[in-house]
Every structure is written in structure tokens, then in C-alpha cells.
Amino acid sequence: MVENSKMIREVRISKLLLNLWPFILSLLVFLSTRLSIRNPAFIEQHYSRGIYPVIANLFSFFSNVIPFSLWDVFWILIILLLISGLILVAFRKIKFGWLGLRTLQILAILYSIFYFVWGYNYFRPNIEKRVGWETPKPDEMIFRSILDSLIVRTNFNYLQILSSDYPKIDELVEESYKIQSPKLAITYPNGTRRPKTMIFSSFYSKVGLSGYFGPFFNEIHVNQYLLPMDYPFLLAHEKAHQFGIGSEAEANLVAFIVCTKSSDQRLKYSGYQTLLLYFLRDASHLKEYKDYINKIDKRVLQDFRFRQKYYQGLENNTLSDMQTAANNSYLKANNIEKGVKNYNQVVSLVISWYYNSINY
Asked: Where along the chain do its domains lie?
């Protein structure tokens, strides 16, 4: 009788541990992220430059063999499984509590996997510390000087980019990354990168998403409705994430440098015109704002106006606002204090880059 009670107790404990281990693991991962925020140098040395490149090499080798997005397919399967579970609940084949527990377990496991395969990169030192740049004090004269330079260079490099150029552009972006990686503190080659088209490009367009990096399979995704003028910069931006850069502003800066340091005019134009838009947003309060607009080549202005109408025509305001709110919460939860405003912080990073470019 005593032995039976002991066996029953052991079975119950084993069952409890079996149900709880995903949550225990996710709790440990969460605590490790809090420690990581306080120890960026440790993360840089042991994860971003140690563990992550190994993961990137392994995962990208596998995912690059598959021509379609594994991440999109993965979520299709997850949704189908959830729907199937709800149907089984409706027909009383399984209990709702059982389905809810399994769903939470899967989410806890995915949370833990995310940080192991890529997420700890959010806690590495900022790019200025990694490359040893001095941070300049805010200076409106420097801002105006760079804005003027961006206008001149955007005008000079204007040209039309075609979707048929994409394979060559991919090669050129890779070539530029290889050259610039030592100066940007990037571990190259860090695996391989094969741009993949989003399976649900139409839906992603409605929420205002042009591309994303899928860390679970180390995949780079590009929206098929992306305008060709934006392709080089967007591709370079998503590749920056694959190289372990979590900050959106830093990914924008790296994309700008990679594009504009290339000898190819297509990359240069995409890089300069994208950053010009960011600078113009910050310059909108200046009295001379219209004067700056008048300096821009009419063909470039036509591109800007066409882009605005084109993407507004694709977006659904409600879905876009929901995606922005979700992304804002996600970024803030991962040590990006400004949330979605982090994208526009590229302006201060570009100023820092220009300020230190004498040694670049």
C-alpha cells in the first residue's frame, strides 16, 4: 500500500514537471535577458561573436536550400493545428483546458528558442561602442550640412531601378557587406543569406510591412510588392538583422553605409534617397524646409510622391496601426526604449558616422 502511494506520488510529480518545464525554461530565459541588459560586453563576446555565428551558419545552410519561407509555412501549420484543436474541443474529443495548456507550452518554448537562436543580440553594446565612435553633441549646423549633402548625392545618383536587377543587387549588397564588415564590427560571412518572398505579401502590405528577418530559420524576407527603388536598402537592412543587429536604427545605418559605399549607382540611390526621407522628417519644423524641398531633383520628388501614394494604396489603416502598436511593444520589451521611433533614430547615428568618418 505504501509502495503504491509512493508510485502514485512519483507519477504525479513527473506529470507536473512534464507540464511545467516549458514555463520553467521560459522563466529562466526571461531572467537571463534581465541579466543580459546589464552585461552587454559579455553578450557581445560570448553570444553575438561566439554562439550566434555558429547558429547562423547552421540554420542558414539548411534554410537556404528551401526556396520558400519556412517561417511562413511554420505559422500556417501552427494556425491549422490550433483550428483543429478548437474543432476537437467543439466535438468534445479533447478538453479546452488541455488545448489551452498545450498552446501556452508551445508559446513558452518558442519564446525560449527565439532568444537562443537570435534574440540575445538585442542586448549587445550599441554600434558606437562596438566600433569606437565618439558621440557628437547635437548640432543643427551639422544636421543641415548632412541634409544638404544627402540632397546633392540623391540628385546626382538618381536612376530607375528594375525588379530584374534584384539578383545582381543581392550580389552587390553581399560584396559591400564583405568589404565594410570590419569597420562595422560585423562577423562575416555569418552564414549565407537568400532573400525570400513573403508568402502573404498582400496581407503584409496591408499592415505596412515591407520585409522582415525570421530568426527561427535565419531567413530574410522581402515583400513582393516592394518598390524597386526601395529594394537595395530594404535588403541591406534585413541582412543587417541576420548579422546580429537588433536595433532598427542601427540596421538602417548599416544599410545606408553598405549601399552608399558601394560603387553601384542603384545601391547608392536607394541608400541616399531613403536616408533623405528620414532627414526631411526631422527637418519639417525648420523655417527653410521648403527651400530644402526645392533643392531636390524633380525626378526624385516624383519618386517620393509616387512611393507615398503607392504604399498608402496598399495599406489598411486599422491593420497598420495594430501592427505598429504590436511592433512598438515588442521593441520596447527587447531593450529598444523608443519602440518604433527607433527607426528614425538613424538620423543621429548618421550624424555620428559623418562626425567620425574622418577615421572611417
From this structure: 2-122, 127-359
